[in-house]
Each structure stands twice: as structure tokens, then as C-alpha cells.
Amino acid sequence: MLWSTSLPLLGSSLLALATSALAVPQARADKHYAIMDNDWYTAGFVPYLVALDGDVEILGLASDTANSWQPQGALHAVATLEAGNLSCIPVYAGATWPLINTPHRFQAWEMIHGKLPWEGAFAPENKTFEAEGNDPTSGDPNRIVKEAFKEGFPKGRPENSTSAANFMVQMVHKYPGQVSIYSAGALTNVALAVRMDPQFASLAKDLVIMGGYVDLNMLEATGSIMLADYQSDINLMIDPEASKIALTADFPNITIAGNVANQVFPTQEFKEEVLSVPNPYSELFYKYYDLSFPFWDETAAALMVDPSLSINQTSVFLDVDTSYGSPNYGNIHVYQKALAPAGIREVNYVFEVEAEKLKQRIKHALQYPKSCADLA
């Protein structure tokens, strides 16, 4: 009798539970997630603002060694998130060291093959330069230069529960086919994830990178030092071996924003337009975004959000030169299918983007940035 009298109540309870479950937001199968890996700095927040503005849910930021050492970049990521009430996005520390390369090894290569106009984290240590507010290079990779935090030194710290590479692996298993891996610094963390889990790359949505310049050697030789700097490809050259691992892995798609990343430059007029809607990010952009350089990382981020931004691209097979004795160590080489060596893959190489559309995306993301209140 007890069971028979309870069954109607039980049925009602199950119905109520089922109804309430339907009311709970479920993870959409078409939801676009991203993990954004970069050598973060004071004005390096624009790519993640562009992603958020494009309705991409950022699962986390990862830090790597490229322009400066990874620990410094991780704290920049935390600091810039704090600046705009985005601390709900976690930061995961990546590998501090490339797979093989070191400052000494890099500088020895330069003695044989010539100096790079931009040496990133492997430039000789310069205490005077650091005291003037620049991020650290060479020397102790774990030292933090507080003078470089023009956005303010962070109160928080990166997550210590796991590494950047392991976090990437966890997330592609949680959201198979939905997570873009964005890399605008060295590819060390991505390569580690590829080696840690043979399913990692195939479970991601895609890999989008900033870097991978081609056919620019004459321009480097005959142009200014600044022009040569634009094509130095430090992101790949800091860790050539990781670059090869990542760019030959079986991601469903790989998009290369190399030459195209040099296409669109900021202007003073553009900065003033951005500042016409004041907020912490538009103000930091106005004060600290360098007009000398193009929208490198922002171009790659916008292509991740909206591939239709590309108006000229091609499919090519791509390899990375990992011969230390080569003057092209860390640079890419592209092939047509009939001439490609074994073990490499096809990628989407972007030549040109719709410039005005890119600038409008950047401007809107900076003028009306998302905050944790919007993401809840």
C-alpha cells in the first residue's frame, strides 16, 4: 500500500524534475569555444576581446614564451583580465622553456646565420631596458619585471590546478569538435598537448595561428630594419620543433595568419575613434598600443571568430624547417600536393582580409567590451 500511494507523488516529482532539467541551459552542440594561447603583454588584450565580442566562449587563456618569458606573460594575462572585470576567465601557465631551444643556442645560431631584427625572449638580457618598463629577455626566466605592468600589477595569479597543455586536452574531450585552439605566440603548449594525447588535435575544432611568413627574404634584405622585423616570425623560431609538431598534427583545419597579419595597421585616428567610448580597455589601447606594428594577433583572432573575413586564401601543404644548421631554421616552407614530402599536411593559408571589416570588429570589441557580468 505504501508504494501504491506514493507512485502518483513519485510520478509528479519525476515530471517536475524533467521539466526543470529542460529549463536549465544545456551546452549547445554549435557553441564555439576557444583556448587562447599567447605571449601576453600590456596591450595584448584585444584578441580575447574580439573573440568575446564574436560570441566565442573563452574557456581559458594560456601563456607561452615568445616575446618574453612565459611567467611574465601569464601575469600580464591575469592583469589585463582584471583591468576589465574579466577575472572569471582563468589563465593557465604554459611551458616556460621551448622543447629544445635556449637563449644560448638561439644566439649561437645567429652568429652563423645572422641576427634577427626581433629576438623576443631570447634577446640578450638588458637590465636598463627592463627598468624602463620593458618585459624581460634571457637571464632568469622566472624573474618578474613589475615596471612592465603598465596596466597595473595583478592581484590574482594563474591557475595552479593544471598546466596549459593539460587544460587544452581536457577541454577538447569535454567539448569535442567545438574548441578552437588559438596561438599567437610560440606553439610549445600546443605541441605538448599533441604529444600528450593522440586524440587532442582531432578532437579540436581547429588551430588558428599568427605566424608563418613566406617568400619575404628579398623584402627583409632590401627594406628597413623595421620592415625586416615585420617578417621575422619569432613565434615559430623560438620553438621550431614545437611548430613542426603542431602544424603537422591532425587538426580538422589549420588556418595560418602569416603575411596577412601585416596587412592592417592602427592609426592615430583609429585610436582616437576607439577612445571616443571610454572604458578601461579603450583607454589602455589608446595609451599603449604601438602604432609601429600591424594588427598581428588581432587578425588571427578575427579569422578564428569569422573565417569569412578572409577574401583571398589558398590550401597548401606546409612544413617547418627544424634543421639547426639551416638559415631557415624555424621558418615554414609550402608545397603543392604533388611535390609535398611525406608527413606534412594541408593548411588554409590566408593572403588577404577585408581590412575595414577587421578594424570595425576591433573597434567594437574595444568600445563595448564584455565583462564577467555579461558572461554569467
Description:
The protein has helices at residues 2-23, 46-53, 70-83, 103-113, 127-131, 164-174, 188-196, 200-203, 217-222, 225-230, 234-237, 240-247, 268-275, 280-288, 296-305, 355-367, 372-375; strands spanning 33-38, 57-63, 91-92, 179-183, 206-210, 254-257, 310-320, 332-335, 345-353. It is of the alpha/beta class and 376 residues long. The model is unreliable at 1-25 (pLDDT under 50). The protein has one domain: Ribonucleoside hydrolase-like (Inosine-uridine Nucleoside N-ribohydrolase, Chain A), CATH 3.90.245. Helix 2 packs parallel to helix 15 (296-305) and helix 7 (188-196) packs across helix 12 (240-247). The protein has a 9-stranded mixed β-sheet with strand order 3-2-1-4-5-6-9-7-8, with helices on both faces. The longest helix has 22 residues, at 2-23. The protein has 17 helices and 9 strands.
